[in-house]
Specification:
alpha/beta, eight-stranded parallel beta barrel, TIM Barrel, two-stranded antiparallel sheet, disordered C terminus
């Protein structure tokens, strides 16, 4: 099943709007070396506490030391932690011991063929992977929110070779999201559903998305705002996109 993650939520009201229109997960951005969407940990905790289950609340953390990651998760009270930088395996073990109910999502910045090895090494220890387009080796690290598209053929290989769910992020827009889905999703043969939203009018809020059967696959589009993707020529009904 393809689910929708809306990132850079900045208020309780935005969170409620996203949930009302079908978001399965909310991204709450903690302190970062660069990039958009950062909010205070106290606000992250407030949003997380206000979000009803089963919606997932993702804390995006740039911490890399095991104790620092655990402390960040405990301060914010989210049910999922998205680790946006590379960490040692000891970080995953520390999280499992300290906060066993919290899901772990490891970001893989798809910069080249080495990303496949990184994904395969991380996958057994985490609950999901998220494929993004950051530059963790830059002088000022870019760990998300770049708006850049990475090599989807590498993402496709990662989805094919790992057994964990995969979130697809990085420069997904209304004009390319259906193609990203087609290229990356088609490698898995499990049935899924796609949520096809209705375009909002100027006078009222968008209606709740309607779930429809879609082609086989299992990645998850990670998105920043609610926008309609036009149906592709293959007959896909669309999904939410990032802008």
């Amino acid at each position: 099943m393809v689910r929708v993650k809306i990132c850079c939520i900045s208020s309780v009201e935005e969170a409620a709007l996203a949930v009302r229109h079908g978001a399965a997960a909310l991204g709450l951005v903690g302190r970062m070396p660069s990039g958009p969407g950062v909010i205070d940990d106290r606000l992250i905790a407030e949003i997380a506490a206000s979000t009803p289950p089963p919606v997932a609340t993702f804390l995006l953390t740039s911490e890399t030391e095991p104790e620092a990651i655990v402390d960040h998760v405990r301060r914010c009270g989210t049910n999922t932690v998205q680790i946006v930088d590379a960490v040692e395996p000891s970080a995953y073990r520390a999280l499992r011991r300290a906060v066993p109910g919290v899901k772990i999502v490891q970001v893989i910045h798809v910069t080249g063929p080495e990303s496949l090895d990184q994904a395969k090494a991380s996958a057994p220890a985490v609950d999901a992977l998220l494929l993004d387009s950051g530059r963790p080796q830059a002088r000022i690290k870019e760990l998300g929110g770049t708006g850049r598209v990475h090599d989807w053929s590498l993402s496709r290989r990662i989805v094919a070779e790992v057994s964990r769910p995969v979130f697809l992020a990085g420069g997904i827009r209304p004009e390319n999201a259906a193609e990203a889905y087609r290229q990356v999703a088609a490698v898995r043969d499990r049935p899924l559903h796609r949520c096809a939203p209705r375009r909002p009018s100027r006078s009222r809020a968008p209606r709740r998305p309607v779930c429809r059967p879609g082609p086989a696959g299992a990645p998850i589009l990670s998105q920043s705002y609610l926008t309609r993707i036009r149906p592709s020529t293959s007959g896909d009904t669309g999904a939410w996109a990032a802008i």
